[in-house]
Amino acid sequence: MSSREQILARVRRALADVPADEPRTRAPGDGFADSHGVGPTLEVLEDRLHDYRALVRRVAPDRVAAEVAAALERRGAARVAVPAGVPQEWFAESSVELLRDSREEPVPVSGLDGVDGVVTGCSVAVAETGTIVLDGGPDQGRRVITLVPDYHLCVVRADQVVDGVPQAVRLLDPSLPLTWISGPSATSDIELDRVEGVHGPRTLEVLLVGSGD
Amino acid sequence: MSATFLGIPPFPEAAEKAVNDSQLRHNLRKATHTIRDKRASVVGELHDDWQHLRSEGAAVKEHTLRHLDHYLEQLEESVQRAGGQVHWAADAAEANEIVTRLVKATGETDVVKVKSMATQEIELNEALAEAGITAYETDLAELIVQLGEDLPSHILVPAIHLGRSQIREIFLEQMAEWGVPAPPELTDDPKALAEAARVHLRERFLRTRTAISGANFAVADSGTLVVLESEGNGRMCLTLPETLISVVGIEKIVPTWSDLEVFMQLLPRSSTGERMNPYTSTWTGVTPGDGPQEFHLVLLDNGRTDVLADTVGRQALRCIRCSACLNTCPVYERTGGHAYGSVYPGPIGAILTPQLRGMSSEVDEALPYASSLCGACYEVCPVAIDIPEVLVHLREEVADSSGHLGEKALMAGAEAVLSSPRALGAVQRAAELGRNAVPRHLPGMVGAWTDTRDVPDVPAESFRQWWDKRGKERG
Ligand code: SF4
């Protein structure tokens, strides 16, 4: 008997007390909330991101290019990685060199290690938890590009922001590789003192675009 | 090269040693109280919804366990459909053998690892070392433990028993042997220590082509694996290598993707006391052009089906390893993690370890007594595992077989609590939560030392019940 068969047989034997006609599917409980009404969505997201010590700016839709340029300049970035599908107009006012990355034409890791940052969009953001989710879409790219550079500038549209975790889970496609980001990386492993920035980008900056109306 | 839990004395002796270690006690108190407070505040934010999420979490896990055969087959199919390969390991030896074979097939002799309880349980690093493969731990605390040839003492913060100056020394002495050395001017500032770890590991991440992970959840319907972390070392291991091998206990399954609505709220708030942990990665099989192009899932039994067969003990398999029960436990706070003689310390360890290992040793038989049965662990458990119920159940089993060692263990557990006024505070709170207060005098052996010590509010109602019952059973 293979180990597969052996384990399944052991499981079935262990579950002898479970009635044979007990349904194998269960209706999800509706007892829990979609969100917890903590305040206006965008303000809450902004507050949570501040809490994680991410940099956040509210930006009018016609000001994205100017704010991207200003953020990169503040950072002193000269070369940044971008996913190939990132909107061209975001960089209309920047003079930085863009390193385009795609699954077909990937920038090698050593190249990503040398850039000054990465600029992406996102798939969904969760206000209550200050979470930004990337799903590898055209303006988000391969997972590695938002991991190796030390600075991540993320453009979040107001219409991508939901209040609570359940709403986000429903919008996300599990077949895609997802990265949930809630502030910069951190550790509390040494005497429980929080240190921000271990691996992954040590600085996360978010441009929150639009008013959500 | 690395330490194991083999040879750790049974709980009473190990606990006594720990209680006398003041650095350890200081660290433990600070850690458990800080995390406990943070947890209480972010759980409080959700008001009544927390209890809804908690019962939903418990119900999802309970349902999954009751149909585990079905969900295991579904998970296997989903992972295979998405381009992953699935392996089944009946025990630790088989899991180690599978992983060793898979790593050898890549031709690599170095692997990077994400913190994983399952691989610690099976002592994978030691097995790989025997095959000439070096496994590099990449979680900061695990790195400290590995470099220091030490043992983890907490599920969430495994190096919590060490202070910053000890960590500095370990880095200065050991990093060079393992790779990029620590800078000679290294201070004991946690920022500087974290930076040293970043530099030490970075080069390793960028060149290692095989990674080993565990998973917090494995989703049956979509075939998705989920890893929650803080530092980004997980993302590095899950993204950069060409081959990824994940060793996952068969109890980690949840049926559907939408179940994560619940667990992605329960786990971070209950574990680190954050609204959300910094990074969560989810992946489903292989994504062409993005991340590892070869993915292996090793499904691990290693005693879990024995736990499943016990209708009372089964609930221990719901555990999502948040460590809230450790942080709230008055006994853990005094003894630390090593005393439990297993990778699973604290209240969950006291019920999981003896069941997984089948009460095969004195260490295992002592574990169900490493508790004052105050019930605080049950109150905080995000999947409502009634740990005291399982403890009492296991004590009955021990009493039926030998019963001798239990008394000593019981003394050690109670001693750890009674010698700390703060711990008694916790115990009192637990008592307020519904368990009745205690007799002034305890019968039998325990009575002997309560003569010299007032027993204020030990939550000994259930304790006493157990004691009485046990007395009757032994005639
Ligand atoms: S038993 Fe409950 S509280 Fe303890 S680690 Fe597991 S899930 Fe968390």
Main traits of this protein?
heterodimer, A: 213 residues, 4-stranded mixed beta sheet, 12 strands, globular, B: 475 residues, alpha/beta, Rossmann fold, 6-stranded parallel beta sheet, 23 helices, 10% strand, disordered C terminus
- Strand segment tally of chain A: 12
What would you call the shape of chain A? globular
Give me the CATH fold name of chain A. Rossmann fold
**Into which percentage range does the β-strand content of chain B fall?**
5-15%
Indicate the proportion of strand residues of chain A. 15-25%
Helix content of chain A: 10-25%
| Main pleated-sheet profile of chain A | 6 strands, parallel
What assembly state would you assign to the polypeptide chains in this entry? Answer: heterodimer
Unreliable spans of chain A are none
Radius of gyration of chain A: 21 Å
Between the first and last Cα atoms of chain B, what is the distance in angstroms?
49 Å
Q: Which residues of chain B form runs of ≥5 with pLDDT under 50?
A: 421-475
Mean pLDDT of chain A: 94
Overall, the morphology of chain B is globular
What name does the CATH topology of the domain at 64-304 in chain B carry? Rossmann fold
Number of domains of chain A: 1
What is the first-to-last residue Cα distance of chain A?
62 Å
Greatest contact pair?
Answer: A-B, 74 and 97 residues
- Tell me the number of helical segments of chain A per DSSP (H or I, 4 or more residues long): 5
Largest sheet strand order of chain A: 1-12-7-4-2-3
Give the CATH class of the domain at 64-304 in chain B.
Answer: Alpha Beta
How do you describe this structure in short?
Chain A is an alpha/beta fold and 213 residues long. Chain A has helices spanning 3-14, 41-51, 64-75, 109-113, 165-171, and strands at 55-59, 79-83, 97-101, 117-120, 124-126, 131-134, 151-157, 161-162, 178-181, 186-187, 195-196, 203-209.
Describe the structure.
The complex is a heterodimer of chains A (213) and B (475). Helices cover 22% and strands 23% of the residues of chain A. By secondary structure, chain A is α/β, with parallel strands linked by helices. Chain A has a single domain, classed as Rossmann fold (3-Layer(aba) Sandwich), CATH 3.40.50. Chain A has a 6-stranded parallel β-sheet, with helices on both faces. Chain A is globular. In chain B, 53% of the residues lie in helices and 10% in strands. In chain B, a hairpin with a 4-residue loop joins β5 and β6. In chain B, α9 runs parallel beside α10. Chain B is globular, with a radius of gyration of 22 Å. The interface between A and B is large, with 74 and 97 residues. β9 of chain A pairs antiparallel with β9 of chain B, so a sheet runs across the interface. The complex binds iron/sulfur cluster. The site of iron/sulfur cluster has 13 residues of chain B, from α14.
